[in-house]
Amino acid sequence: MLTPDDYKVADLSLAGYGRKEIELAEHEMPG
Q: Cα separation of 1 and 8, whole Å?
């Protein structure tokens, strides 16, 4: 599992891809 810090790093280094992955994860696993 990614930690909040991992999300920040992913958003900074891979803004578009990272956000898309997070959105997909949220749809697959609400909450």
A: 14
Cα 4 to chain centroid, rounded: 9
Distance, in Å, from the CA atom of 12 to the CA atom of 15, rounded to the nearest integer, reads 5
Give the type of residue at 3: T
**Summary count for the chain: helices (H), strands (E):** 2, 0
Separation CA 30–CA 16 (nearest Å): 21
Structure tokens at 24: 């997909």
- Which tens digit of pLDDT belongs to each residue from 1-31? 667 666 666 556 666 776 788 788 888 876 6
